[in-house]
Queue: 3 jobs
Job 1
Amino acid sequence: MKFSSIVLKSLGLGAAAMAAACPPPDGIKAIYPDQLTNPGADNDSKTVKSAADYEITTKPNVIFILLDDAGYGDISRNGQTNFKTPNIDSLAQNGIRFVNHYAGAPVSASSRCALFTGKTTGHSAIRGNLELGKGVGLDPETVTKEGQKGLPDSEYTLAQLFKDNGYNTALVGKWGMGMPENNSSPKNKGFDHYYGHLCQRMAHSYFPTHVWEDDKQVDFAGNSGREGNVWLHDEFEKKTAEYLETYLQDSSKPFFLFCTYTIPHGALQIPEGMLNDATYHPYTTAAWWSKASDDMKRYAIMMHRLDLTVGKIIDQVSDAGKLSDTLFLFSSDNGPADEYGADPNFFESAGRFGEERLRGIKRALYEGGIKVPFIASWDGKIKPGVSEHIFASYDIMATVAQILDVDLSAKTKSDGISFLPVLMGDTANQKQHPYLYWEFVGTDPTEGGGPRQGVRSGVWKAVLNFGQVSTAQAGEGDIELYHLGDDPGEKTNVASAYPNIVESMRAIMVEAHDNNDKFPQIKK
């Protein structure tokens, strides 16, 4: 097939919706290959509207539900057929389900940093899971020190944006971006209150010996990490309800509630005796039940339990008469994992796009590692539908800023572009990125291991896996190239057929990366 034919085919699918990226740094002009149109070339012709132009006259409450290691295919609306997520589906039915949303990174800490700072991993402070100590919560006696390297004092966050604009703010779940001792707990970064895990290694356990609440340790007597009387998600659900009850009664302020639940991350643990209890979950008679390992049974049960929590949140907001005042956001921090007995292949958790099974899992920059669910629902404001708009989690901060009519540039240099026009049905004025960019640093053997870079520009996707090396030069190496319009499963590397596009992607990989002394694995 000639390239011109491919372009025409892509246009038939909606070229504007197929285009995505992040802006290059100041002074850098991204280089685009012959025959490849800059997806953001017509951005100057778009009208930037105020919230009032979209008839947003009051600040909405925002409830953001973020799962941990849930893949694109782990919700029913994205094709999951083995277990059901009816409450999550109801958000999609009443809002917009995005089929081309990407996490900011393929692992937790750097993904959350991208989301919370509005910066790609080429510019962000956290680009991998940089630990303060060793050991995991399953075996607390092995933990030498809790936590990860934190955000700099100067880094402005999504929670601070809400707080600075009159919001009550609270977090329930996993943080993973610092501790009180390095001035990077949630309370240091914009949250009035929080409850949950500060350290992502501790979050591997659903029977932890303790969690944190407002910078103080809360102990669970009788929990060992592997078993106990307190199953943590039950506590998350209770604390969520408590925060909601308080905030829904406070008419003086809107609220931002970040429900960063740990399901299905880490050990696949459920309360004792519930594996085969038909009153706890509906799957004991499912066709797949007898074929599944106990771990994968627990995976489905945990997703079922999570979905029930989502339903309770929706009901609590509805009972308070606040659905029309509340924007719900739902997503995951990266693709599915293959740890602690999880098998992403069993339920096809990475998902399918059309007929193609997505390639890769957590830590990979293939689609399965970074393409994740995203739903936005706002009763009476967002018209239900499905969107092909391509964007990343680092666009969320810019979107909130537009809803609040805030000039974000006065606080931080964001890589994000607001997708509020898409939410409001104004696709004609939706700006596009020239490219999306990711990088990952690590030495895990998953999908080749070591540092890696990834770019998406229009229908083109480039992946550079450096292998098991301690340092790598940005853009140097054998770049894989995929045409996602024809090959969403990234099965056929067409780099040899399009050398000009490969070299343009290489140039983007160089220009999109700024060196970071704490994460020196990729340099330029």
Job 2
Amino acid sequence: MKKILLSIAAIAFAVMTATAQEVTTIENDSIDDIEMSVQLKDLEVVTQRQLIKTEIDRVSYDVQADAESKTRTAMDMLRKVPLVTVDGEENIRVKGGTSYRIYKNGHPDPSISQNPKEVLKAIPASMIKRIEVITEPGAKYDAEGVTAILNIVMKDASGMSGATGTVSAGIDNYGNPNANAYVTAQHGKLVTSLNYGFMHRNRHANKQKQDIMQVYGATGDTLRTLGGGEGSVNVHYGNLEASYEADSLNLVTASVGGFYYNYAADGDGRTSMTAADGTPLYNYRQNTHTSGNHYYNVNGRLDYQHRTHRKDEVITASYMISSTMNKTGMDMTYSDGWNSPMPYSMTHQKGDERFWEHTWQLDWTRPLALGHKLETGLKYIHRSNSSHTTMQYAGDEIDFPGVDSRFKHLTQVGAAYVSYTYNHGPWTARGGLRYELSRLRASYPDGSQSSFHRTLSDWVPSASVNYQFDFARSLKFAFSTSINRPGISYLNPAVIEQPTSIHYGNDHLSSARNYSTSLTYMQIGPRFTFNVAPTFSWSDNEITAVRWNEDGKDVDTYRNTLTRRYVGLNAFFQWQVTGTTSMMFNGDFGHNYFHSAELNLTNKGRWSSFFYTQITQQLPWKLRLTGNVGKWGGATENLYSHNGHGWFYGFSLQRSFLKEDRLTINLSAQKPFSPEFDSYTNFTTQGDYTGRERYEWPMRSFSISISYRFGSLNARVKKTDKTIENNDVVGGSQASGAQGGAQQQRTN
């Protein structure tokens, strides 16, 4: 007979203290059948649910594990995701930069990508399962223009703990409403989900003031514009998804989604030019009326996935279609002028951009042996853009020539990739190579220029290595290459002339190649989790805006002339201070270097810093109090300028009610003890002119939101392991998404 002392230990995210009332040990000749009776009293568990997970190619944030997800938005959650920072103007940066794309459920979502600020504020966090930062996309993605992918994985019904849907609504002190609904249903092997959301911002909330000053180096003249404006915005978005699993080996998924955005604004201001000695040269008043601005996007996707009888071998065939239409209109009236620099008193500008994209893709994943995996695939993209730009001028004395420009652009891309992953013990390594053959063709239906075409050939390598020290600690090194192709707004050659400025695109832009290396250390503990990631990236032919002064007017366009270097450090930590108090920090610190040999310009020397920190306190009566503070700005953004910095802070109080906490109410305040208007300043330090741009907009706000979960269905819309991702375009309408962090058009 053996006397056995059984000791149980586990690596877990909990610290437990207990007083044993009675422990019965077992005497048995065999340990195969052990019965144990343990009775404990005074059991205390102090822990935090882990929100962060790291893999060889990504870091993910578990949104559903965050209690604030019940009433917050996707934009709020992004502030907490490692390697992601959101500034005071809600511009998003990933790994310290803007060279990224936004996906939903593993594939590009044009609805989000084209207007990330508006849509991410309209998507409730309660609909999101997790947010992934794909830090090393690999050969499957790399040639298509990204150093990172921000992937928003929506929640399925199985993640709802039996719920069939949620409805949420909110309103702020400006009277701006928002509402959304998410519903899932199952009929046999067919599972569908439907979501719809709406957001409105009225004119009072969208007020803006501006003060712009430019000093010209050649003459010493100073141009000054003072003004302001206000506008209203409506956002509608929706998505329908379905999956049909015929058997354990075959799965078909489909989705169709859309996004609609309209915008109207009015503004006024006064512009004046003075000589170096202070003598007035001219001045005038301008009134702006913007109406009929509409943006539509409709996109659909169909995937067929077949699993073979070999474990983890998957073949996926995919098709994606996307179409966008962007219509803009703006009237400018000039009055009360003295020595006015323009021979007209009114302009009427209209723009119409249309985009179609068809993509076919075939992917094959096959394990070769234990610890070895091969991925390969083929892809074809047919992308067509067209634009029609008109500019009409009216005046009492002179009939100024107008603009009527039509432009078409076709891009065809054929690609093949292969990726190999090796896993042995604590080591995981992945290497990949992608080849792309691209054909670009431009034509001018108005006959203004001759058609042209260009063929590009690119090889794109990538590699990453991860070492897992133990369960909690890992270190990863990665190298990647990516390509950016110009979109139609960068290519459109239409010349738009205003009283003090001229703008046009460059139809001879070529693709740009970017490189990036990073080293990431992650440690996950029961009370303290942190991530540190130094990064270095560079490019020698990047597309950039260039500007100069010609005949008294500021001229800007785009060229492949930029040499860029970036070095930065991103840090994240999550700390369970006590059983009822937690804290998190997320931020980055970096330095940009820009140089153009063609323009003989260099911009360097400024370090930027972005951070967001939050403290959460559990209170009696199931109340949850949260406070946050953040800093943003100071970065060197381009060849000519750097931006200022700003601070923001806020508080929220949340409580859940009813059975299973189905009803949640949240009260929040942003900058409650500050003036109503916040400010942002951009400084121009070199070029044909120097100066500053200062903008002010309402930042202080108070809001209430309510969310309710209903139903008990346990089903989920399944998704294929592979699908289509297009993300190579910068500038203009594209299914693959606009460059992340792009600034929204300001109200003037």
Job 3
Amino acid sequence: MKRAPKARIPLLALSTAALLALACGSALPPGASNDQALVQPTRVHKMPMHDSSTPIPYSAPAGAHLTYYGGRVNANTQVVQVLWGTGSYDTHISSTGTPSVASFYQQFLSKTTLISGYMQQYNTPASGGTGQTFTSGAFSNQFTITPSTGGSTVGDSAIQNEITAQIAAGHLPAPATDAQGNAVTYYALFFPPGITITQGTSSSCVAGGFCAYHGTVASGGGHNEYYYGVHPDMQAGSGCATGCGNSTTFGNYCSVASHELAEMMTDAEVGLAGPIGPPLAWYDSTNGENGDICNAQQGTFAGCDGQSYTYQLEFSNAQNNCVSISPSCGGGTTNDFSIAASPNSLTGSGSSTISTAVTAGTAGTVSLSVSGVPSGASASVSPTSVTAGGSSTLTVNAGSAVAGPYTITVTGTEGTTTHTATVTLTISGGGGGGSITNGGFETGSLSGWTSTGASESVANSGCHGGTYCARLGSTAPTNGDSSIAQTFTAPTGATGLSVWYKETCPDTVTYDWALATLKDNTAGTTATVIAKACITNAWTNATSPLTAGHSYTVTLTSHDDNYTGDPTYTLFDDVTISTGGGGGGGGGITNGGFESGATGWTTAGTNSIATSGCHGGTHCAQAGSTSPTNGDSSFSQTFTVPAGKSQVSVWYKSTCPDSVTYDWVTITLNGTVMVPKTCTTNAWTNITAAVTAGSSYTLTLTSHDDNYAGDPTYTLFDDATLN
């Protein structure tokens, strides 16, 4: 049966004027109260202000019931608290000690019957649903960002853009997924005094406005789907101080936080929804989400950390009413702790402070261990154990690890309790290849290179990998050679040098050209890595063999004859050293660049080999088509990882004008998800996963289209390599 067109229509049959009135909190439809919220045709769901002069009915509205519509829940919530810049925050917000909003999140998610009792009724079915089961969540960490958006008013689109930009810059941890590829990260944003948040035509902390809201950002641009909540200042002087609860300031902060948290957990993808149906999860079309049904009905629970916390009651289908939760401390107060890393991202070698804090009971001994260290690198913590509340130092040496992003995990263990903190390690192109310095130019400079000639600089757009690349020559005419060179020693296990280049040459090779040479200083020979050429090309890879232990000088050159009408320049990037068998060709993967068509790959569905718009070379795989196709289209290959290889890397570029409910791209390795089901139209994006030398793997690249006439989905795949 054909589905209806996917216009984002309101959930109830209301006029545009009525919808705007609802968003502004003014006129309401007959029979509705200001505490009842609707899914507006936006990407958020708001908690309305409560008129403090209106009594709070401690019961659910008659007929309230949450219906499951097939969308995702957040069954293993990991809270990342984000402070929106500096300001006069309430100390319970800016602190991660006890009591604080941080300790509230930890207690609420792991030390109450919220998970063990209440949430189990909202597990999702495997048939017709996402097959998720709620388990305890955790408070992960707190970060203070420096937003690019200034001023006293901030809109929701600016908030979404800011979170995404902070993730991309490594200032916030990347959104994580569980083993089934379901998103788990919840960014809880707290704002200082003096900032008004707007969403649509509604504003924070004013009559008819909202106390908070939660939303969803779809995966894309290299990040997974993630969830976020927006919390205005609620201190004295703010409208939210009187319209968002009847407890203390801290109590109201916690109450509102629980409202948004519980709604996000049971209806995670509401921000992607339009009409009633997927990807909504648990929703009442009349009364809203589980928090809306019981808006402003507050209770308290005794935390296992000895503190009393205020929270909002939530609606239970099983009991057909607003229900309370209770402590779940395992028969007594059990010691517990939190662990965090600062900074939580490193580029190359560096260090991070691993801090711990007591979240329950008394301070015990926390033993620390490190995992996820890439081959060729090293990492250690000192000291290896601390008393909860103390800190240790993680020291990382990039060593000879190959370029790529890695996740280093520090695990803290106290008795039978474990918590983890993660540090994203980025080894830029060539930076971990053993002996090449700044091969990806991610220092934003030519450090490590000797430049000679007419014009040598660093570009920050159109690069092959990362943010920066070298630009030799200029968009204006230059006279003669522009060159950079570096002398290095090939490390143990080195087999080849790899260089990516992109030339703009509107002249002929008689006058202008690009050139790369590799001089073996030990043997006294010189090899040509890139022969003199005058072309205007896409990013192209060139390689040359290396002998371990030999000294080499690599020289990259772009030549222009200073003629006014045809300036020539060349971008160079990701100068890396390959180790182990296979050189730059990816070892055990056959035809990973699809330059030999589909040779080596098993195909299913509608597939072809594209010859334009590819990531590297002249060919790439296309799964799906520009016309509608029905179901999965895939390329798969089984391979054995050769010695010296520890990572598989794949590039993909998807065109998906639909939603992930119907169309998607996904990449799996031995059934483990590398790219969760994602519907996005993105630029070329790289994804990596760890592999073990000598082991066999099956890599499957899949694009799914639902055969709907208006929005065919297809995906390009390229450069599947082993590093």
